[in-house]
TrEMBL record:
Organism annotation: Sphingobium herbicidovorans (strain ATCC 700291 / DSM 11019 / CCUG 56400 / KCTC 2939 / LMG 18315 / NBRC 16415 / MH) (Sphingomonas herbicidovorans)
Gene Ontology molecular function: succinylglutamate-semialdehyde dehydrogenase activity
Gene3D superfamilies xref list: Aldehyde Dehydrogenase, Chain A, domain 1, Aldehyde Dehydrogenase, Chain A, domain 2
Designated name of the protein: Succinylglutamate-semialdehyde dehydrogenase
UniProtKB keywords: Arginine metabolism, NAD, Oxidoreductase
Pfam family name, one: Aldedh
Length: 477
C-alpha cells in the first residue's frame, strides 16, 4: 500500500491535502497510448483548447490564488501575480510556437520543394518546484501540449494540491484525460519517471543536486530531450549612483521577494566600498520595515514563511555557519515563530571570509561583499558555478556594457532587480544553473524537433555520370 502523502500549510501548520503516490508505470502507459491522437489534431484545435484553459483559470482565479497562498505561504498578492502569469502563458506560448517552430517551404529544382516542419517528442515528464507550483510547471506544460506532446506532471511533494487543481483545469478545458496526467509522489516517483523507457523528455525545475543527478542518468541516452533549470547564487552589483534609496529598494526586492524563494533571487550584494556603508544602511532600514506574516494578513505582508520548518532550519544553520566563519551580521536571521517557518530577512557582510560557500541559499538571506574597483566587482559576480541571473544598479552605460559582456549569466539586467523575469523572453542560465535549454519564450525549442524534407509529387531522377555505356552487341535483333 502506498504511503500517505500530506501537504501542510506553512503559515498555520494545518493539513491542507492528503493522498497517495501514483502508479508511475500505469500513468506513463496511459499517456503513451493517448498522445498520438492529440498530436494528430490540427494546431488550431490545440490552441483553442488551451485558450479554453485560460477561461477556466479565470473563472477559478480566486480559488487558485487562495490555494497557492495557503500551500506555499506566499502573500495573497504574490500568489495572484502567479495566477496571472499562468493565464498569460498561453498567448505567449502560441506566439513562440509560431515564431520558433513554424513551417517553412522553399522551392527547389525540377518543381521540388524543401520543407521544414516540427514534430512533438512524444511523452514529456514535467517535474515542478514548490516556489511557483502553478506558473513554472505551466510554463513547460502549455508549450508541450501546443506542440502535440503528452504530459506527465509530477508536482513537488510539498505542493501537490496546487498541482492537482492545475491538472483539473486542463481537463475541464478539454485536454483529454490521458494526454496530461498527474503523478503524485516524492523522489522515488520522480526517479521512476526520469528513467522510464517510454518517457521521451524531462523538463525539470529544482535544485542543482537533483538536476545534475538527472543529467548523469541521461549521459548514455542522448535520444531523450532534457531541459534543466537549477537555480542560482545570483549577484547584484551596486555602483556609483545618486539614488541610494532606489538602489536599496531594488536590492531588497531582489533578495527578499517571495521570502527569497525565487531561483533568480539575489544572494550576493556586491558593492563599491565608497558607498557600501550608506547603501547597506539603507537596505537594512527597508528590511527592518518589511512585514512578515501569514498570506491573508491585514496589512498585507511583504513576506510569508518559507516552505517548511526543515527549510527554515537549514537557513538558520547557513547563517550561523557564515557568522562563525568570518561573516559580520548586519541584520540577524531570526525565527519569528517557534512552531512555524517564519524568518526575518537577514543581511550578513562576508567580505572578510576566506572562502565563501558557493551554494543556493533559498531564502531571505543576503550576503554583502565590498570591492574596491569595477573589475573586482565583475570578478566577484563570476565567483560562482551558477549563472542564472545578475543585475547591476547604477554605473555608467560603458560600465554596464562591460558588465553585460563579461558576467556569466543567462539573465543580465541594469537598474532592475534580479528577479521578475518576463515570460516573453528566454529564461535560463549556464554553469550549474541550466543546460542551455532556456524556458519561457524559448520553451518551444525543446517541445518539438525540426524535420527537414525534400519533396516532389512525382518521382523524377536520372543518373548522368559514372555508368558504363550500353553493350549493344549483347542485345538481340
Amino acid at each position: 500500500m502506498s504511503a500517505l502523502l500530506t501537504s501542510i500549510e506553512p503559515a498555520t501548520g494545518a493539513v491542507l491535502w492528503q493522498g497517495t503516490a501514483s502508479d508511475v508505470e500505469a500513468e506513463v502507459g496511459r499517456v503513451r497510448a493517448a498522445w498520438p491522437s492529440w498530436a494528430a489534431k490540427p494546431v488550431a484545435y490545440r490552441i483553442e483548447t488551451l485558450r479554453r484553459f485560460v477561461n477556466v483559470v479565470r473563472a477559478n482565479e480566486d480559488a487558485l490564488t487562495d490555494l497557492i497562498a495557503r500551500e506555499t505561504g506566499k502573500p495573497l498578492w504574490d500568489a495572484r501575480t502567479e495566477v496571472t502569469a499562468v493565464m498569460n502563458k498561453v498567448d505567449i506560448s502560441v506566439a513562440a510556437y509560431s515564431e520558433r517552430t513554424g513551417q517553412r517551404r522553399l522551392e527547389a529544382a525540377m518543381g521540388a520543394r524543401q520543407s521544414v516542419r516540427h514534430k512533438p517528442h512524444g511523452v514529456m515528464a514535467v517535474l515542478g518546484p514548490y516556489n511557483f507550483p502553478a506558473h513554472l510547471p505551466n510554463g513547460h506544460i502549455v508549450p508541450a501540449l501546443l506542440a502535440g506532446n503528452g504530459v506527465l506532471f509530477k508536482p513537488s511533494e510539498k505542493t501537490p494540491a496546487v498541482g492537482e487543481m492545475l491538472v483539473r483545469f486542463y481537463h475541464e478545458a478539454g485536454v483529454p484525460q490521458d494526454v496530461v496526467r498527474l503523478v503524485h509522489g516524492g523522489p522515488d516517483e520522480g526517479k521512476a519517471l526520469t528513467v522510464h523507457a517510454d518517457v521521451n523528455g524531462i523538463l525539470f525545475t529544482g535544485s542543482a543536486a537533483t538536476g545534475i543527478a538527472i543529467n548523469r542518468q541521461f549521459a548514455a541516452n542522448p535520444g531523450k530531450i532534457l531541459a534543466l533549470e537549477m537555480g542560482g547564487n545570483n549577484p547584484i552589483i551596486v555602483w556609483d549612483t545618486g539614488d541610494i534609496s532606489s538602489a536599496a529598494a531594488l536590492v531588497v526586492q531582489s533578495a527578499f521577494l517571495s521570502s527569497g524563494q525565487r531561483c533568480t533571487a539575489a544572494s550576493r550584494l556586491i558593492v563599491k566600498e565608497d558607498i557600501a556603508e550608506l547603501l547597506v544602511s539603507e537596505v537594512k532600514k527597508i528590511a527592518d520595515r518589511l512585514i512578515v506574516d501569514h498570506p491573508h494578513a491585514d496589512p498585507a505582508p511583504f513576506m510569508g514563511p518559507v516552505i517548511d520548518n526543515h527549510a527554515a532550519d537549514q537557513l538558520t544553520e547557513s547563517f550561523l555557519y557564515l557568522m562563525s566563519h568570518g561573516g559580520r551580521p548586519i541584520k540577524h536571521l531570526v525565527r519569528l515563530s517557534e512552531e512555524r517557518p517564519f524568518l526575518s530577512p537577514a543581511i550578513i557582510d562576508v567580505t572578510a571570509m576566506a572562502e565563501r560557500p558557493d551554494v543556493e541559499l533559498f531564502g531571505p538571506l543576503l550576503q554583502v561583499v565590498r570591492v574596491p574597483d569595477f573589475p573586482a566587482a565583475i570578478a566577484e559576480a563570476n565567483n560562482s558555478r551558477y549563472g542564472l541571473s545578475a543585475s547591476m544598479v547604477g554605473g555608467s552605460p560603458e560600465q554596464y556594457n562591460q558588465f553585460w559582456a563579461n558576467v556569466r549569466a543567462g539573465i543580465v539586467n541594469w537598474n532592475r532587480p534580479t528577479n521578475g523575469a518576463s515570460s516573453s523572453a528566454p529564461f535560463g542560465g549556464l554553469g550549474i544553473s541550466g543546460n542551455h535549454r532556456p524556458s519561457a519564450y524559448y520553451a518551444a525549442d525543446y517541445c518539438a524537433y525540426p524535420v527537414s524534407s525534400a519533396e516532389i509529387e512525382q518521382p523524377r531522377a536520372s543518373i548522368g555520370i559514372g555508368l558504363r555505356d550500353f553493350d549493344t552487341s549483347a542485345m538481340g535483333d
